[in-house]
Amino acid sequence: MQFETVVKERQSCRNFDAARPVEKEKLERITDLARFAPSACNSQPYGISVVTNEKLAADIAKATQGMGMNRHCSSARAFIVINEEPAGLLAKTGGRLKDQDFASVDIGILCAHIVLAMTDCGISSCIIGWFDEKRIKELLGIDEQKRIRLVIAAGYAAKDDVLREKKRKEKEKVVRFYE
Questions:
Q1: What angle do CA 22, 78, 122 make, to 5 degrees?
Q2: Could you tell me whether strands 148-155 and 46-51 are parallel, antiparallel, or unpaired per DSSP bridges?
Q3: pLDDT, tens digit (0-9, with 9 covering 90-100), for 42-89
Q4: Which of 80, 21, 91, 93 is nearest to 54 (CA)?
């Protein structure tokens, strides 16, 4: 796809086709491309866990559904869990000096690369911020000292999940040019 098409067609899927698994080869391509996301001082302060096992994916889905949230995750066939890893010394020092959380920025950039690569591969996604972090750490064997920052539900959209009109602020409200 052309980049403009990928950006305009990417949306949060709320209705996955539960009968259609996501091919491991596509997930490998997506995560390989995501590794090229820029990060402060090339620190790459993240770990990526890809879940395709049906039972484990069902357990991850349940861990995203506290208080009635994210019911659509039950039909997702794969999940990508992103945890924060220690940043490199230069990025960590620069972050402290400039009062910036470069790791969170880097993880956001990584996540954008992942969901755009998914769209390019025909896979739908939904970025999840509401989840039982402790439970997901237990399920994936992630050290309890590390933070899980995002979970991405993935799968093929059900046939009735149509492309919705994107509602965004007017360009003039978010973009300023200084000439």
A1: 45
A2: unpaired
A3: 999 999 999 999 999 999 999 999 999 999 999 999 999 999 999 999
A4: 21
Q: Which two tokens stand for residue 49?
A: 């866990």
| Domains of the chain: residue spans and CATH | 3-159 (3.40.109.10)
Closest C-alpha among 10, 88, 2 to residue 46? 88
124-128 β-sheet, strand order: 46-51, 78-84, 148-155, 124-128
- Over residues 101-148, the pLDDT tens digits come to 999 999 999 999 999 999 999 999 999 999 999 999 999 999 999 999
Q: Hey, is 131 helix, strand or coil?
A: coil
Q: Which two tokens stand for residue 18?
A: 């539960």
Closest CA to 112 of 103, 125, 121: 125
Residue 44 sits at the vertex; the CA angle it makes with 58 and 52, to the nearest 5 degrees, is 20
Per 3-state DSSP, what percentage of the chain is helix, strand, and coil (rounded to 5)? 45, 15, 40
Task: Look at the pTM and tell me if it is higher than 0.90.
Answer: yes
Radius of gyration of the chain from Cα atoms? 17
Residue 16, phi then psi, degrees to nearest 5: -85, 155
Closest CA to 48 of 154, 120, 152: 152
CB atoms within 10 A of CB 12: 13
Chain mean position to CA 78: 11
φ, ψ for residue 78, nearest 5 deg: -150, 160
